[in-house]
Predict the 3D structure of the following.
Amino acid sequence: MPDKFNPPRRTFLSNSSKVVAGASLAAVWPGKLQATQWLLAEAAATGPSHAVMEIVSMLAARPAELGAKVFADVPLPLRSSMLQIQSVLVGNKPGCRLSLWVQELQGAIEYLKGLNCAIVIAQVPPSQSYAQTSLPRRQLLKAMPRLRVYVAKSLRDAKRLEKLENERADYRALGLALGYPSCCVDAAVNHDQNSVNEKGRVARQANLNAIAVSVSSAADFRCNQFLVESELHNAAPLSAIAHYPCKLDCPETVALGKAALELSARKWPIWTVTLCELLRAPIVYWSDESWPADYWDEYCGLALIEARNIGGGEWNSPLPAIRLGAEQTPAGPLPQSVVSVKIGKKQVLLRNATGEASSYTVQELGPTWVLNWRDGKVEKVT
Ligand SMILES: [Zn+2]
């Protein structure tokens, strides 16, 4: 990884405390440094100060609680978008696009105005069908009025985003105006067409995650946006990027993600350490492409926090896995607190912290992919 040639950047921080410096160091240099190990070593060297130990114990183990502490002053619906919003404010990207429920709008707008963001709000047309989700979920989502909020530094730019999407429906121009790499915009525009499922005659959107996984042979954690649709979804920023990457090691996306994590390390150092740990957790992923319409979900899988591969398709972890997507598969729901995954030829076995096992047939589940952001490999295991 080219990262190892970059010197650690302690000096760009205004706060000089060791924890903050270490956290930022880990964030910009994660390939060579396990953030938790660094903090443990620091705690051992300086004596276990209460603050350091508290941080260590919360890292990775309780990310939702840590997010709630770090982002306590941010309205809940905006927490996951804060890195993108700050990227716009410092000029790292030209604009961003948020999606909010009507009842969330007032608090969110007041907060965004306080940050000096230029904002344009638009109603999501009822024709928007949430075609990437299952039929029951679509009905639920359609019943709740939803709004889009376009955020930029100037009102002119925010208006332009709104116009590109709602008046001109020019998704290529919109993607570029949001600062997404042109390779990723092209991939999304080329694939992002609804097709009609033959069995149920139901329209569905191409699964852009499954497409990116299937064309990737390598994975860089800065392209990981799977946690955005997970149990942690509104806890804090959960990805360095805000778009579907064309592949899991897209170089332009890696560059964007790196800039975002550097900004994140300056704004929220402790969260950034945690985020890098989360993004580097191997993901077991199942594509919904052959599933019945009641289960469609482009994010189905488990992020195996702190897990080790012990061979024979088996992964063990001291921490519970984070469930991605709607937590449902045609072979059964994904259980809570999974600490062991065994991927066999005919079945996948999940075990939770109390030793309870759930078994899923490969026939119903389809192929299992392992996205190993740590060693950079993407593998179809079954
Ligand atoms: Zn790309």
